Protein backbone atom coordinates (compact mmCIF):
# COMPACT_ATOMS: atom_id res chain seq x y z
CA UNK A 1 0.00 0.00 0.00
CA UNK A 2 1.43 3.36 -1.03
CA UNK A 3 1.45 6.30 1.37
CA UNK A 4 0.15 8.59 -1.34
CA UNK A 5 -2.71 8.04 -3.74
CA UNK A 6 -1.58 9.46 -7.08
CA UNK A 7 -3.67 10.09 -10.19
CA UNK A 8 -2.54 11.46 -13.53
CA UNK A 9 -4.58 14.26 -15.06
CA UNK A 10 -3.52 16.00 -18.28
CA UNK A 11 -0.12 14.41 -17.88
CA UNK A 12 0.41 15.87 -14.40
CA UNK A 13 0.40 13.99 -11.06
CA UNK A 14 -2.20 14.84 -8.42
CA UNK A 15 -1.89 13.67 -4.81
CA UNK A 16 -4.02 12.52 -1.94
CA UNK A 17 -2.69 11.19 1.43
CA UNK A 18 -3.71 7.57 2.00
CA UNK A 19 -3.71 5.85 5.40
CA UNK A 20 -1.09 3.09 5.55
CA UNK A 21 -3.20 1.12 8.04
CA UNK A 22 -6.75 1.06 6.67
CA UNK A 23 -6.37 2.55 3.19
CA UNK A 24 -8.61 5.56 3.85
CA UNK A 25 -7.83 8.52 1.59
CA UNK A 26 -7.76 12.11 2.77
CA UNK A 27 -10.29 13.56 0.31
CA UNK A 28 -11.54 16.56 2.26
CA UNK A 29 -10.52 18.87 -0.58
CA UNK A 30 -10.09 16.36 -3.39
CA UNK A 31 -6.85 15.82 -5.27
CA UNK A 32 -3.92 18.19 -4.79
CA UNK A 33 -1.48 19.40 -7.37
CA UNK A 34 0.69 20.66 -4.49
CA UNK A 35 1.93 17.73 -2.38
CA UNK A 36 3.07 20.03 0.42
CA UNK A 37 -0.38 21.61 0.72
CA UNK A 38 -2.05 18.16 0.78
CA UNK A 39 0.24 17.07 3.61
CA UNK A 40 -0.31 20.27 5.57
CA UNK A 41 -4.11 20.02 5.34
CA UNK A 42 -4.07 16.36 6.39
CA UNK A 43 -1.91 17.08 9.44
CA UNK A 44 -4.10 20.05 10.36
CA UNK A 45 -7.10 17.68 10.35
CA UNK A 46 -5.45 15.24 12.75
CA UNK A 47 -3.66 12.82 10.47
CA UNK A 48 -0.26 11.57 11.57
CA UNK A 49 2.75 11.59 9.26
CA UNK A 50 6.24 10.15 9.74
CA UNK A 51 9.14 10.61 9.30
CA UNK A 52 8.41 13.76 7.27
CA UNK A 53 5.73 15.20 5.00
CA UNK A 54 7.36 14.07 1.74
CA UNK A 55 8.63 10.54 2.44
CA UNK A 56 5.98 9.34 4.81
CA UNK A 57 3.60 6.70 6.01
CA UNK A 58 0.17 8.14 6.79
CA UNK A 59 -2.10 7.21 9.68
CA UNK A 60 -5.63 8.63 9.71
CA UNK A 61 -5.94 7.77 13.44
CA UNK A 62 -9.47 6.46 13.07
CA UNK A 63 -10.90 4.64 16.15
CA UNK A 64 -11.03 1.31 14.33
CA UNK A 65 -7.23 0.97 14.21
CA UNK A 66 -6.03 3.51 16.77
CA UNK A 67 -7.75 2.08 19.81
CA UNK A 68 -8.14 -1.04 21.88
CA UNK A 69 -11.47 -2.85 21.40
CA UNK A 70 -12.88 -4.96 24.20
CA UNK A 71 -13.62 -8.46 22.89
CA UNK A 72 -16.78 -8.84 24.95
CA UNK A 73 -18.57 -5.47 25.13
CA UNK A 74 -16.93 -3.94 22.00
CA UNK A 75 -15.96 -0.75 23.89
CA UNK A 76 -13.10 1.25 22.34
CA UNK A 77 -10.37 3.01 24.33
CA UNK A 78 -7.85 5.20 22.54
CA UNK A 79 -4.28 3.93 22.75
CA UNK A 80 -3.12 7.47 23.50
CA UNK A 81 -4.67 7.15 26.97
CA UNK A 82 -2.32 4.56 28.42
CA UNK A 83 -3.89 4.82 31.89
CA UNK A 84 -6.90 2.89 30.58
CA UNK A 85 -4.73 -0.20 29.94
CA UNK A 86 -3.75 -1.00 33.52
CA UNK A 87 -6.46 -3.59 34.15
CA UNK A 88 -7.05 -4.74 30.59
CA UNK A 89 -6.38 -8.37 29.75
CA UNK A 90 -4.69 -8.67 26.37
CA UNK A 91 -4.16 -11.60 24.05
CA UNK A 92 -1.13 -13.77 24.72
CA UNK A 93 0.58 -12.13 21.72
CA UNK A 94 2.21 -9.13 23.38
CA UNK A 95 2.61 -7.39 20.02
CA UNK A 96 -1.15 -7.17 19.53
CA UNK A 97 -2.37 -4.22 21.58
CA UNK A 98 -5.60 -3.68 19.68
CA UNK A 99 -7.71 -6.49 21.16
CA UNK A 100 -8.34 -7.22 24.82
CA UNK A 101 -10.89 -7.39 27.61
CA UNK A 102 -11.72 -4.16 29.41
CA UNK A 103 -11.70 -3.56 33.15
CA UNK A 104 -15.51 -3.50 33.30
CA UNK A 105 -15.79 -6.98 31.79
CA UNK A 106 -12.98 -8.27 33.99
CA UNK A 107 -14.86 -6.97 37.03
CA UNK A 108 -18.02 -8.71 35.83
CA UNK A 109 -16.13 -12.00 35.54
CA UNK A 110 -15.47 -11.82 39.29
CA UNK A 111 -19.22 -11.57 40.00
CA UNK A 112 -20.41 -14.51 37.85
CA UNK A 113 -21.95 -17.39 39.83
CA UNK A 114 -19.56 -20.31 40.12
CA UNK A 115 -19.64 -23.95 41.19
CA UNK A 116 -16.78 -25.16 43.41
CA UNK A 117 -15.87 -28.69 42.36
CA UNK A 118 -13.20 -29.19 45.02
CA UNK A 119 -9.73 -30.74 44.91
CA UNK A 120 -9.31 -34.27 43.58
CA UNK A 121 -6.50 -36.69 44.50
CA UNK A 122 -4.13 -37.88 41.78
CA UNK A 123 -3.64 -41.57 40.99
CA UNK A 124 -0.19 -43.10 41.39
CA UNK A 125 2.11 -42.38 38.40
CA UNK A 126 2.17 -46.10 37.57
CA UNK A 127 -1.47 -45.73 36.45
CA UNK A 128 -0.78 -42.71 34.22
CA UNK A 129 0.43 -42.56 30.62
CA UNK A 130 0.79 -39.85 27.99
CA UNK A 131 -1.21 -41.76 25.42
CA UNK A 132 -4.63 -41.85 23.78
CA UNK A 133 -5.98 -44.38 26.27
CA UNK A 134 -5.61 -41.89 29.09
CA UNK A 135 -7.79 -39.47 27.10
CA UNK A 136 -10.25 -42.14 25.97
CA UNK A 137 -10.90 -42.96 29.61
CA UNK A 138 -12.35 -39.46 29.97
CA UNK A 139 -14.61 -40.10 26.97
CA UNK A 140 -15.74 -43.37 28.53
CA UNK A 141 -16.63 -41.68 31.81
CA UNK A 142 -18.42 -38.86 29.95
CA UNK A 143 -20.59 -41.48 28.22
CA UNK A 144 -21.47 -42.92 31.64
CA UNK A 145 -22.51 -39.43 32.77
CA UNK A 146 -24.80 -39.11 29.74
CA UNK A 147 -26.45 -42.47 30.48
CA UNK A 148 -26.91 -41.55 34.14
CA UNK A 149 -28.44 -38.21 33.14
CA UNK A 150 -30.97 -39.96 30.90
CA UNK A 151 -31.82 -42.27 33.76
CA UNK A 152 -32.37 -39.27 36.04
CA UNK A 153 -34.62 -37.64 33.46
CA UNK A 154 -36.79 -40.77 33.34
CA UNK A 155 -37.09 -40.66 37.14
CA UNK A 156 -38.55 -37.14 37.29
CA UNK A 157 -41.79 -37.01 39.29
CA UNK A 158 -43.93 -34.18 40.64
CA UNK A 159 -45.28 -34.28 44.20
CA UNK A 160 -47.03 -31.45 46.07
CA UNK A 161 -45.71 -28.87 43.64
CA UNK A 162 -42.13 -30.14 43.92
CA UNK A 163 -39.98 -31.71 41.22
CA UNK A 164 -38.24 -34.86 42.44
CA UNK A 165 -35.25 -36.33 40.58
CA UNK A 166 -33.28 -39.45 41.42
CA UNK A 167 -29.79 -38.17 40.75
CA UNK A 168 -27.65 -40.42 42.95
CA UNK A 169 -26.10 -42.34 40.04
CA UNK A 170 -25.57 -39.12 38.08
CA UNK A 171 -23.64 -37.56 40.96
CA UNK A 172 -21.45 -40.67 41.26
CA UNK A 173 -20.72 -40.72 37.51
CA UNK A 174 -19.82 -37.03 37.53
CA UNK A 175 -17.39 -37.73 40.38
CA UNK A 176 -15.78 -40.48 38.28
CA UNK A 177 -15.50 -38.07 35.35
CA UNK A 178 -13.85 -35.38 37.48
CA UNK A 179 -11.41 -37.94 38.90
CA UNK A 180 -10.52 -39.15 35.41
CA UNK A 181 -10.08 -35.60 34.17
CA UNK A 182 -7.78 -34.89 37.10
CA UNK A 183 -5.70 -37.95 36.18
CA UNK A 184 -5.49 -36.79 32.56
CA UNK A 185 -4.18 -33.39 33.65
CA UNK A 186 -1.60 -35.06 35.89
CA UNK A 187 -0.46 -37.44 33.15
CA UNK A 188 0.10 -34.59 30.69
CA UNK A 189 1.64 -32.25 33.28
CA UNK A 190 -1.16 -29.69 33.16
CA UNK A 191 -0.98 -27.58 36.32
CA UNK A 192 -3.36 -25.27 38.17
CA UNK A 193 -1.80 -22.11 36.69
CA UNK A 194 -2.42 -23.32 33.13
CA UNK A 195 -5.99 -24.29 33.99
CA UNK A 196 -6.58 -20.86 35.51
CA UNK A 197 -5.49 -19.18 32.27
CA UNK A 198 -7.65 -21.56 30.25
CA UNK A 199 -10.55 -20.89 32.62
CA UNK A 200 -10.25 -17.16 31.99
CA UNK A 201 -10.06 -17.61 28.23
CA UNK A 202 -13.04 -19.96 28.30
CA UNK A 203 -15.06 -17.43 30.32
CA UNK A 204 -14.16 -14.65 27.88
CA UNK A 205 -15.21 -16.83 24.95
CA UNK A 206 -18.57 -17.56 26.55
CA UNK A 207 -19.10 -13.91 27.50
CA UNK A 208 -18.64 -13.04 23.82
CA UNK A 209 -21.28 -15.67 22.99
CA UNK A 210 -23.67 -14.12 25.53
CA UNK A 211 -23.86 -17.31 27.60
CA UNK A 212 -23.94 -15.41 30.91
CA UNK A 213 -26.90 -13.28 29.77
CA UNK A 214 -30.55 -14.20 29.35
CA UNK A 215 -31.33 -15.54 25.91
CA UNK A 216 -32.37 -18.53 23.83
CA UNK A 217 -30.79 -21.82 24.78
CA UNK A 218 -28.16 -23.14 22.40
CA UNK A 219 -28.95 -26.61 21.05
CA UNK A 220 -26.99 -29.56 19.81
CA UNK A 221 -27.61 -29.93 16.08
CA UNK A 222 -29.28 -33.32 16.61
CA UNK A 223 -31.79 -31.82 19.03
CA UNK A 224 -33.48 -29.96 16.20
CA UNK A 225 -34.45 -33.28 14.60
CA UNK A 226 -36.07 -34.85 17.68
Q: Can you characterise this structure?
A:
With 226 residues, the protein is of the alpha+beta class. Helix content is 34%, strand content 17%.
What descriptive keywords fit this protein?
alpha+beta; 4-stranded mixed sheet; 5 helices
Chart the SSEs and their pairings.
Layout: E1 4-9, E2 12-17, H1 35-44, E3 48-51, E4 56-59, E5 67-70, E6 76-78, E7 89-90, E8 99-101, H2 103-109, H3 132-154, E9 157-159, E10 162-164, H4 168-187, H5 192-208
Parallel strand pairs: 5-8
Antiparallel strand pairs: 1-2, 3-4, 5-6, 7-8, 9-10
Overall spatial form? elongated
Q: Which sequence of strands runs across the widest sheet?
A: 6-5-8-7
Helix content: 25-40%
Number of strands: 10
Hey, roughly how much beta strand do the residues contain? 15-25%
Order of helices and strands: EEHEEEEEEHHEEHH
Structure classification:
alpha+beta
Span between termini: 53 Å
Q: Output the radius of gyration.
A: 29 Å
Pick out the low-confidence regions: 91-98
Largest sheet: 4 strands, mixed
Overall mean confidence score, pLDDT: 81
The total count of helices amounts to 5
Give a brief rundown of this model:
The chain has 226 residues and is α+β, with helices and mostly antiparallel strands.
Amino acid sequence: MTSWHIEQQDGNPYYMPQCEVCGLRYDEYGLYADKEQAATDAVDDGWQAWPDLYHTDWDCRCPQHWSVRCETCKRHVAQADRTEFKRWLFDRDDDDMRVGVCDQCLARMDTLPTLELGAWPIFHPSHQRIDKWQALKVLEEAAEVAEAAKESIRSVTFLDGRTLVNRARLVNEIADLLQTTTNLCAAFGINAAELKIANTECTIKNMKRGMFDEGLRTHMHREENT
